[in-house]
Design a protein that fits this description.
Layout (H helix, E strand, L loop, with lengths): L1 H8 L3 H11 L11 H8 L8 H8 L18
Helix pairs in contact: 1-2
Length: about 80
């Protein structure tokens, strides 16, 4: 689902989620040591998700928290 939206937007799935966070007024601090990823993280201000796309992403919530060991936290 996120990949479909990313392809339509011409962005990566990570960029779509960063954009979703921005449009949802969720403070996000992306982290990367890779210069190309840092640039990629900033390139989310030239697009906008539609209300339908935002609703589709909202359905991905499985009401679980992610911790230091993501293998322990999965959506079932």
């Amino acid at each position: 689902m996120n990949r479909d939206i990313a392809k339509k937007q011409g962005k990566t799935p990570a960029q779509v989620i960063l954009r979703w966070n921005i449009q949802s007024n969720i403070i996000t601090i992306p982290k990367s040591m890779t210069p190309s990823r840092i640039v990629e993280n900033f390139n989310v201000f030239d697009c906008s998700l539609t209300e339908e796309e935002r609703k589709r992403i909202n359905t991905l919530d499985c009401h679980k928290r992610v911790g230091t060991n993501p293998d322990k936290y999965d959506c079932v």
